[in-house]
Amino acid sequence: MVEQRAPHLVVFTGAGISAESGIQTFRASDGLWADHPIEDVATPEAWRRDPERVLRFYDQRRDQVRRARPNAAHKALASLEKQGFAVSIITQNIDDLHERAGSRRVLHLHGEILRARSTVDARMHYPLLRGGIRLGDLCDKGSQLRPDVVWFGEGVPHFSEACETVARADLLLVVGTSLAVMPAAALLEYAPLDAPCVLVDPEARALAPPGTTALEQPAGKGVPALVRHWRREGRLWLPETLLGEA
């Protein structure tokens, strides 16, 4: 007897899902870039020019992440995994809200704010269970520690792994992203031709690429609604009545 494979949901999440937990986004009018230009805090050049300013900025972000709590969308995805679905999450977010909700397979494309890494060996990571990073905090090779995040102008080390994951999807769920940041936005191109793709976002109809189904709802409403259908039916599908809502 051939063992039936669990349906594989690949979820690609962006800042919109974390915003509902109170984490500021970069692109909103009151977001992080309003007071902190990219070139001052999120580039290798900024780090070389003023590392103390960069560290202060990420300390503030880290405090914000620690205060935040997983929302209904994070929890719904974790519940689907607990029911036996294969759920792989690829996120542009550097927070740990997916993990705190209970998701076990989470790939962080842009790094993790609650880790530090060496400036001479990117393989050397250190958890930040409390506090932040200070000048003079060194890795085991004697080099200054930096935030374990991908800055503008740096490569995305896990992109190939993310592409391989998307290529194994039965359904691709995109949540809370403008699909404007490359190379992450190109992930959709690696999905199987027969794998449906749905975008959940308040502006989904304007953002959805051709061939993508738009669910114009915030993550905390749209994702749990989809998950309820999938858990009830035991399969991944796109309920037309739900997707017809604005």
UniProtKB/TrEMBL annotation:
<keyword id="KW-0808">Transferase</keyword>
<keyword id="KW-0963">Cytoplasm</keyword>
<feature type="binding site">
    <location>
        <position position="61"/>
    </location>
    <ligand>
        <name>substrate</name>
    </ligand>
</feature>
<feature type="binding site">
    <location>
        <position position="58"/>
    </location>
    <ligand>
        <name>substrate</name>
    </ligand>
</feature>
<keyword id="KW-0012">Acyltransferase</keyword>
<feature type="domain" description="Deacetylase sirtuin-type">
    <location>
        <begin position="1"/>
        <end position="233"/>
    </location>
</feature>
<dbReference type="InterPro" id="IPR029035">
    <property type="entry name" value="DHS-like_NAD/FAD-binding_dom"/>
</dbReference>
<feature type="binding site">
    <location>
        <begin position="176"/>
        <end position="178"/>
    </location>
    <ligand>
        <name>NAD(+)</name>
    </ligand>
</feature>
<dbReference type="InterPro" id="IPR050134">
    <property type="entry name" value="NAD-dep_sirtuin_deacylases"/>
</dbReference>
<comment type="function">
    <text>NAD-dependent lysine deacetylase and desuccinylase that specifically removes acetyl and succinyl groups on target proteins. Modulates the activities of several proteins which are inactive in their acylated form.</text>
</comment>
<dbReference type="GO" id="GO:0034979">
    <property type="term" value="F:NAD-dependent protein lysine deacetylase activity"/>
</dbReference>
<feature type="binding site">
    <location>
        <position position="219"/>
    </location>
    <ligand>
        <name>NAD(+)</name>
    </ligand>
</feature>
<dbReference type="Pfam" id="PF02146">
    <property type="entry name" value="SIR2"/>
</dbReference>
<dbReference type="InterPro" id="IPR003000">
    <property type="entry name" value="Sirtuin"/>
</dbReference>
<dbReference type="InterPro" id="IPR027546">
    <property type="entry name" value="Sirtuin_class_III"/>
</dbReference>
<feature type="binding site">
    <location>
        <begin position="92"/>
        <end position="95"/>
    </location>
    <ligand>
        <name>NAD(+)</name>
    </ligand>
</feature>
<feature type="binding site">
    <location>
        <begin position="14"/>
        <end position="33"/>
    </location>
    <ligand>
        <name>NAD(+)</name>
    </ligand>
</feature>
<protein>
    <recommendedName>
        <fullName>NAD-dependent protein deacylase</fullName>
        <ecNumber>2.3.1.286</ecNumber>
    </recommendedName>
</protein>
<comment type="similarity">
    <text>Belongs to the sirtuin family. Class III subfamily.</text>
</comment>
<dbReference type="InterPro" id="IPR026591">
    <property type="entry name" value="Sirtuin_cat_small_dom_sf"/>
</dbReference>
<keyword id="KW-0520">NAD</keyword>
<dbReference type="InterPro" id="IPR026590">
    <property type="entry name" value="Ssirtuin_cat_dom"/>
</dbReference>
<feature type="active site" description="Proton acceptor">
    <location>
        <position position="110"/>
    </location>
</feature>
